[in-house]
Every structure is written in structure tokens, then in C-alpha cells.
Write a structure and sequence with these properties.
With 143 residues, the protein is mainly alpha-helical. It is built from six helices and no strands.
């Protein structure tokens, strides 16, 4: 959620560049995402090496790289989600509110829903399945 405050700190500069026809806001957003990829990869790699071996997951290269890929993709998805919220809302408190609601619903709701077996028996809705939430793919739990 720190991306929201960073986006609002940069907003006057981007607006000024847009008024002077120097830079389009979409080009600035794309450049920020491209520049962030190497830095995010290095920090996620350091975090994942420590986490993977501290938790005691299976020691194989393929499983480690799948774990690294999933955590990297989820991290970038959350980064883009927070930047999207800050670009859509004009006020910083509103963006922070929606970010908090989005994070809590994405992380907590899949664990509050009934299990997949119960959902398949009672209704065939895809919304009732716990495995449809992206954070559940990155951090699976054994239920």
C-alpha cells in the first residue's frame, strides 16, 4: 500500500508534464512498471530464498522456481492493483480505503467460503470455489 502514497507524491509532476505536452500519464505508468521489475525481482529473490528454506519446503529446483514465479507474479499484480487504485481515485484517503478493502477481501474471503467439495455439492457456482483467488495460488494452505 506504500505505492499509493508514492503515486500521489508524483501526481503534480505528471500533471505538469501532461499540461506542457511533454509526457503522457500512460507512458509514465508504463515506465514505472518496467523500471520496477529488476528491483522487485532482486528483493523477491532474497525474500524467497530465505522463506523457502526456512519453511522447509521440498528441496528441488523446479519447485523453488515455480514458487519464485508465483510470488513474483502476485507481487507485481498487487503493485499494479495499488497503482490502479491511486490513478482512479482523486483523493488519497479514498484510494487507501479501497486498497484496504481489496486486500482484506482478496486474502480473507477465500478462507471464509465453504470448502470446494461442499461448494460442488450445493451449487455449481465458480464464485464459491476457494481456488479462484490469485493469492490462494501463491500461498496455498492445507485444509
Amino acid at each position: 500500500m506504500a505505492e499509493i502514497t508514492n503515486s500521489y507524491a508524483q501526481r503534480p509532476i505528471v500533471v505538469r508534464h501532461c499540461q506542457y505536452a511533454m509526457l503522457r500519464p500512460s507512458a509514465d505508468a508504463l515506465a514505472l512498471n518496467i523500471v520496477d521489475i529488476p528491483f522487485k525481482f532482486v528483493t523477491i529473490l532474497a525474500f524467497d530464498i530465505v522463506l523457502y528454506f526456512m519453511v522447509g519446503l521440498q528441496y528441488s529446483a523446479s519447485q523453488f522456481f515455480v514458487f519464485l514465479l508465483f510470488t513474483f507474479v502476485v507481487n507485481l499484480a498487487m503493485l499494479i492493483f495499488f497503482r490502479m487504485l491511486s490513478s482512479v481515485n482523486r483523493a488519497e484517503p479514498n484510494a487507501t480505503l479501497f486498497a484496504g478493502l481489496g486486500c482484506s477481501s482478496a486474502l480473507c474471503v477465500p478462507y471464509l467460503l465453504p470448502s470446494a467439495r461442499f461448494a460442488e455439492r450445493t451449487c455449481s457456482s465458480l464464485l464459491m470455489r476457494r481456488s479462484r483467488s490469485p493469492p490462494c495460488f501463491a500461498f496455498p494452505s492445507r485444509r
